[in-house]
Design brief:
It is a single chain. By secondary structure, the protein is mainly beta. It has 2 domains: 2-23 and 30-181, Thiol:disulfide interchange protein DsbD, N-terminal domain (Immunoglobulin-like); 186-311, Thiol:disulfide interchange protein DsbD, N-terminal domain (Immunoglobulin-like), CATH 2.60.40.1250. It is 10% helix and 45% strand. It contains 2 helices and 22 strands. The protein has helices at residues 2-26, 174-181; strands spanning 36-42, 53-61, 66-73, 80-84, 101-104, 110-115, 117-124, 135-148, 151-164, 186-187, 193-199, 203-210, 217-219, 231-235, 240-242, 246-248, 251-256, 259-264, 268-276, 288-293, 295-297, 306-311. The strands form 7 sheets. Strands 11, 12, 15, 16 and 19 form a 5-stranded antiparallel sheet that branches. It has a 4-stranded mixed sheet with strand order 10-22-20-14, with no helix packed on it. The chain has a 3-stranded antiparallel sheet with strand order 1-2-7, with helices on one face. The longest helix is centred in the first third of the chain and has 25 residues, at 2-26. It is globular.
Length: 318
């Protein structure tokens, strides 16, 4: 596995250098040529102190193009948004990322990101407006790498959204924001997941066992064309490398109307390996991840997608 990690690192580095080189030669492309459009939106038409507010960067992509998640996988670089929400009393807003999908690109490298559309969100639990303010201006800076089969472009954009101070009402984008809020992972490990960590000379092996939540629910298998199949998206910190998770388990395929579903008939196992990116590093191993699953009920009805973000319990001295 050590060789595999190194091969992946080399491939990713070469593709990243190619992407940067290509971006440098295409930075003068006109707005009409860009494969992505983005704007800032909010779920309210006005703000007042004490209210809750959701804001986001709404990104739309041309067909066959994608951008990357907060952890890009084996190629690309993470999409970043820096928020300036000081006008409403927030100085350290975090970017909240909806659940991504996986891409297989050049060199069979697996990456994580978004296609078609997404919203990168920020949440303000309690707005604070200055007493004499008549309006507020929300600002953000975004950066992303836009890629298709054999082409990548670097993208950067500044955003501003001005809202009046007054009685808030739902904006026309609230329904859109609410749809992507449902794709945000919930904190904490789900009850039907068991995690085991086995230390190795190079790092650790992680094994997740996923069982059906109960006798009336079945977990959709990975790779299904209908619904969200079982998936695990790793979130390693800087200095830690992870392999692409492998999912195994017995499956069965059924036909429901015109759709075909594949689900696990027994426990599914998700396996991956974790190690430090440098042999000289003495930092403790750590990693979070997002587990995605969707269930079919006993009445063959498809439930909502569920996503949970949690930390892997590595031994303290590993």
């Amino acid at each position: 596995m050590a060789t595999g990690f190194w091969d992946t690192f080399v491939k990713r580095t070469l593709l990243w250098l190619f992407a940067i080189g290509y971006c440098a030669s295409t930075h003068s492309a006109s707005a009409q040529d860009m494969p992505l459009s983005a704007r800032m939106i909010a779920d309210c038409t006005a703000v007042r102190s004490g209210q809750e507010l959701w804001v986001g960067i709404y990104i739309q992509l041309q067909p066959d193009w994608h951008i990357y998640w907060e952890y890009p996988g084996e190629s690309g670089f993470a999409t970043k948004v820096e928020w300036d929400l000081s006008d409403i009393g927030t100085t350290s807003a975090l970017t909240l990322y909806p659940v991504p999908i996986a891409f297989v690109g050049a060199g069979n490298l697996v990456s994580y990101g978004y296609e078609k559309e997404t919203i990168l969100l920020a949440h303000v639990p309690k707005v604070a407006v200055k007493p004499d303010a008549k309006q507020v201006t929300l600002r953000a800076r975004g950066r992303w790498l836009m890629c298709q089969a054999e082409e990548c472009r670097d993208g950067r954009q500044n955003f501003e959204l001005t809202l009046p101070v007054g009685e808030p009402a739902p904006s026309r984008e609230k329904e859109l924001i609410d749809r992507f809020r449902k794709l945000l992972p919930e904190p904490g490990k789900p009850n039907n997941a068991k995690v085991e960590v086995q230390t190795t000379p190079a790092g650790a092996k992680v094994r997740l066992e996923i069982e059906a939540p109960n006798q009336e629910k079945r977990v959709l298998a990975s790779g299904t064309k209908n619904g969200r199949g079982l998936a695990f998206f790793p979130l390693p910190p800087k200095g830690v490398m992870v392999s692409i998770p492998e999912i195994t388990g017995p499956t069965k395929t059924i036909q429901i109307g015109e759709k075909t579903f594949s689900f696990y008939t027994g426990p599914a196992t998700i396996s991956l390996e974790v190690r430090r990116s440098s042999k000289l590093s003495t930092a403790s191993l750590s990693m979070e991840g997002v587990l995605v699953q969707q269930h079919i009920g006993a009445n063959d009805e498809l439930g909502d997608m569920e996503a949970h973000r949690f930390a892997i319990p590595f031994p303290q001295n590993q």
